[in-house]
């Protein structure tokens, strides 16, 4: 089984999805609360934005404000953790695809045919890598621009990592099909190694769709974001009422779309993995935890620790 589909590593996936969901709900609650307070005249429209301020103070009023400060203050380490996880999963998936693609160099009658769940390594590693991208975009959508003093490094560093995640994900969806055992028979009416979970015309059509989505959807997101923020520098466009209305909800809308896709892909990943374990008589289930599995789960400790640190400690 692909390393990224290890049952212990999947615990880290669920932790990541859970944390991203909790943060999104918290910021959505704050955004809605702020919106109604502004309409009621309790707050000026230009203050109290729902996204993170790097210079949080912990001086918000009441327990609710304290909790919101904790969410703001720990959002940055959460984004860093999701980026690290995504890069690790994507690099591992690309490595798996490259290794698996070497089988096509060997003549068909001399190839070693994988048995058990090993035949699904490409499919599982591709799903794990695809899942890892959604929490990154979700958490990044909740971030505000850093303070001016940090714009020269933090802001651009995040953008560089986003571009790297996108580039490696695009490389993975193009390399993964070549790592499939039946890649040479993809244009046939029926796959040579056709089975319930992979192979066949629908499987290869899904691979093509994944390539289009990974390359095209982020580009569309970038173009729409630039348009809503700048109006493409066209006079008066950025101040149009419908542009302002979409701009006010755009980040949260993007985050919620990614949340739905993230949980849907994770559910499919889980179901598929259990079917594969059943088909291979559970040969890939292990009870021992290795260093890699512990490290994957421990990735989320800093953001959780930061949350409670901001929640409990007082700031000047």
What does it look like?
The protein is an all-alpha fold and 316 residues long. It is 66% helix and 0% strand. The chain is built from 8 helices and no strands. It has helices at 7-39, 62-101, 121-142, 151-175, 201-230, 241-279, 291-298, 301-312. The longest helix has 40 residues, at 62-101. The chain starts with 6 loop residues before the first helix and ends with a helix. Mean pLDDT is 78; it is low at 46-59 and 191-196.
Taken as a percent bin, the fraction of beta residues is under 5%
- Give the H and E element order: HHHHHHHH
Number of strands: 0
Helical content class: 55-70%
Q: Helix tally?
A: 8
Strand-pairing-aware structural class: mainly alpha
Element layout with pairings:
Blueprint: H1 7-39, H2 62-101, H3 121-142, H4 151-175, H5 201-230, H6 241-279, H7 291-298, H8 301-312
Helix pairs in contact: 1-2, 1-3, 1-6, 1-7, 2-3, 2-4, 2-8, 3-4, 3-6, 4-5
């Amino acid at each position: 089984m692909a390393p990224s589909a290890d049952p212990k590593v999947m615990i880290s996936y669920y932790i990541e999805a859970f944390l991203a969901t909790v943060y999104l709900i918290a910021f959505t609650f704050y955004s809605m609360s702020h919106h109604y307070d502004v309409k009621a005249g309790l707050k000026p429209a230009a203050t109290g934005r729902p996204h993170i301020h790097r210079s949080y103070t912990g001086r918000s009023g009441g327990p609710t404000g304290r909790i919101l400060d904790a969410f703001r203050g720990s959002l940055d380490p959460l984004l860093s953790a999701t980026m690290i996880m995504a890069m690790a999963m994507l690099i591992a998936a690309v490595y798996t695809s490259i290794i698996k693609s070497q089988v096509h160099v060997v003549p068909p009658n001399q190839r070693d045919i994988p048995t058990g769940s090993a035949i699904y390594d490409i499919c599982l590693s591709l799903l794990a890598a695809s899942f890892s991208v959604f929490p990154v975009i979700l958490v990044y959508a909740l971030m505000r621009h850093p303070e001016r003093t940090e714009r020269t490094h933090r802001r651009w560093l995040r953008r560089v990592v986003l571009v790297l995640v996108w580039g490696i994900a695009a490389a993975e969806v193009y390399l993964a099909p070549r790592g499939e055992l039946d890649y040479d028979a993809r244009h046939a009416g029926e796959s040579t190694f056709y089975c319930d979970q992979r192979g066949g015309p629908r499987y290869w059509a899904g691979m093509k769709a994944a390539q289009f989505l990974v390359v095209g959807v982020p580009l569309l997101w970038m173009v729409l974001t630039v348009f809503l923020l700048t109006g493409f520098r066209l006079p008066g466009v950025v101040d149009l009422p419908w542009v302002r209305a979409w701009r006010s909800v755009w980040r949260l809308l993007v985050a919620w779309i990614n949340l739905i896709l993230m949980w849907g892909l994770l559910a499919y990943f889980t179901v598929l993995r259990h079917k594969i374990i059943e088909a291979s008589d559970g040969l890939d289930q292990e009870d021992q935890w290795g260093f890699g599995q512990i490290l994957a789960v421990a990735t989320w400790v800093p953001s959780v620790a930061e949350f409670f640190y901001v929640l409990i400690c007082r700031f000047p």
